[in-house]
Amino acid sequence: MEERDFFTETTELKTHMLTCPKCGQTAEYKVSWVVRRKKAQPPRGADERDRARFAKAQSYMVRRDDKLSCANIRCRKPFEITTLQSLAFLAD
Q1: Is the whole model's pTM more than 0.70, yes or no?
Q2: Which residues touch 49 (CB under 8 Å, ≥6 apart)?
Q3: How many domains does the chain have?
Q4: Sign of torsion, CA 8 10 15 19?
Q5: Is residue 1 a contact partner of residue 43, using CB atoms and an 8 Å limit?
Q6: Domain that residue 41 falls in
Q7: What is the pLDDT of residues 15-27, one digit of tens each?
Q8: Radius of gyration from C-alpha coordinates of the chain
Q9: CA–CA separation, 21 vs 48, rounded Å?
Q10: What DSSP assignment string belongs to 28-41?
Q11: Distance (Å, rounded) from C-alpha 78 to C-alpha 10?
Q12: Can you tell me whether residue 51 is helix, strand or coil?
């Protein structure tokens, strides 16, 4: 079994306050995340090893966006997102 068989995958936009490193202006940006939520039960046909892996699995989010463009009209330069984690575990 593959890991994706244990999760349902959706894409969500979350707003974060980020600062442009070039102009220094702080603004709200919508960042795209892939959210993988653990299913209620292991998939059919799972053997003992797969059930053990399923028991250890946790829901988590992975950031899709690595770069954003500055919201300041005068700046508009792309910058890398360095202040947000690229992976975050969810508390269910």
Answers
A1: yes
A2: none
A3: 1
A4: positive
A5: yes
A6: 3-89
A7: 999 999 999 999 9
A8: 18
A9: 50
A10: EEEEEEEEEEEPSS
A11: 26
A12: helix
